[in-house]
Amino acid sequence: MRVLVLCVGNSCRSPMALGWIRSLCGDGVEAHSAGSRPAERVHPLAIRVMAEVGIDISAEKPQPLDRFLGQPFDRVVTVCDSAAETCPVFPGSATRYHRDFVDPALATGSEDQRMVVFRQVRDDISAWIAAIMSETP
């Protein structure tokens, strides 16, 4: 099964979702993530909160959506409204899943306060990914 996770910056929500997919599905899934306007790097706090649950996303690099155009996917997962609105059609019979998650990169306050937001988004994404990946395509 091939899965593509999309967001705008590909720096927080989509790498977290990618980490959950890989953790839950292992080698049975070829998963990628991309952004319509990819950031320069994965957000350090996203890396930290995923490491707290034993998932290492530190080697991930934000990828442009264009890199995946024309490739077939079984599932296309969007984790923000902007990505869902601009998501192109992929060849084949991809099942699309969408949920708009708060962008933790926009959290303000102290690092501890921002970590609370990152953890909440991480946990929300975890529950949703577990549900959709357990569905029969």
Word description of this protein:
There is one protein chain. The chain has 137 residues and is of the alpha/beta class. The chain has one domain (2-133): Response regulator (Rossmann fold), CATH 3.40.50.2300. Helices cover 37% and strands 15% of the residues. It is built from four helices and four strands. Strands 2-1-3-4 form a four-stranded parallel sheet. Helix 1 (13-25) crosses helix 4. The protein is globular. The mean pLDDT is 91.
List the defining traits of the structure above.
137 residues; alpha/beta; Rossmann fold; 4 helices; globular
Structural topology:
Elements: E1 2-7, H1 13-25, E2 30-35, H2 44-52, E3 75-78, H3 81-86, E4 95-98, H4 111-133
Parallel strand pairs: 1-2, 1-3, 3-4
Helix pairs in contact: 1-4, 2-4
Order of helices and strands: EHEHEHEH
Number of domains: 1
Biggest sheet details: 4 strands, parallel
Q: Could you give the count of β-strands?
A: 4
Span of the ends, CA to CA: 9 Å
Structural class: alpha/beta
CATH overall fold name: Rossmann fold
> Compute the gyration radius: what is it?
14 Å
Kindly state the mean pLDDT as a whole number?
91
Strand content: 5-15%
In what order do the strands lie side by side in the largest sheet?
2-1-3-4
- The CATH architecture designation is 3-Layer(aba) Sandwich
What oligomerization state is this entry in?
Answer: single chain
Low-confidence stretches: none
- The CATH class: Alpha Beta
Helix content: 25-40%
Dominant shape? globular
Number of helices: 4
